[in-house]
Amino acid sequence: MKHVSILPLFDATLTSIDSSHQILTRVNDFMRYQQRQPFYEVEIVGATKNIELGAGLYKVSANKTISEIDKTDLVVLPLLCGDFAKAIQKNNVYTQWLTRQYHNKAEIVCLCVGSFFLASTGLLDKKKCAVHWAAKNEFRTMFPEVSIIDDSIITDENGIYTCGGGYSYLNLLLYIIEKHLGREISVLVSKMFEIDIERKSQNPFMIFVGQKNHGDEIVLNAQHLIENNPTQSYTIDEICLKLGVGRRTFERKFKKCTGNSVAEYIQRVKVEFAKKHLEAGRKTVNEIIYETGYNDIDAFRKVFKKITDLSPIDYRKKYAV
């Protein structure tokens, strides 16, 4: 059996703790139905036996404390909600124990923005991490040594698993179950809990917010110019002329500060403009595309699908108000 330690971190959401406990425990029932041995021994493992969550709204009783667990096989870090810097400080009590367990071959399953705490331990340095789109800019600022992945909801690297997107942690749990026990059990869990096993990306849910906490005035002015004029088709040379800067240096600084090339940034702003109008549902798809400044409808459709994983028509069907 694999011993699973679910850590009730400070500012963790009760749902992510309980869901992890329920799903992994239920796997054992499915194994018994198939006349197989239980696979997971699941425990809540806290810094103390009694933990308050949700500013005292909930109380969790741990099965054991970290001082009682010398070795575990799988550590689940739940989703955090609140002030990440404060949560990191409060959860520092787990850092040494978590690091020791990882170096002792334990796998770490990190649910969504629990990654802020995991990154603070240094275990994610030089590794890939999926981060919720709304927290990506803050995460990049705090942990520049971590490689953010935003085209997939799950990363799997050297025994550390992360996911981006609030309830996408359910898909990460399915992924772990499949890795340990095979596709058949994972599909069974997805059916019993009614989880969409094929969800692979955050892109359809993402709202683009440019990174602006970089302190570069020229880049910030360029961002404002692009964002305030989503219907304009500025070339990079035109932007440089307006700002009075050289193209080569500007492009390099823009990429470094925002994480996007200038062309990518323009595309994302235009796609965000189109999404809002598609959600409103009053204009035709072609009218909206022309308003973004694109004359080539097919070209914009390709850009839109690349960024959202949906065609403009499918996006409207999914999100029209």
From TrEMBL:
UniProt superkingdom: Bacteria
All residue ranges annotated as the HTH araC/xylS-type domain in the record: 220-318
Keywords: DNA-binding, Transcription, Transcription regulation
UniProt keyword Protein biosynthesis present: no
Gene3D superfamilies for this protein: 3.40.50.880, Homeodomain-like
Pfam family, one: DJ-1_PfpI
Record bears the keyword DNA-binding: yes
Name by which UniProt lists this protein: Helix-turn-helix domain-containing protein
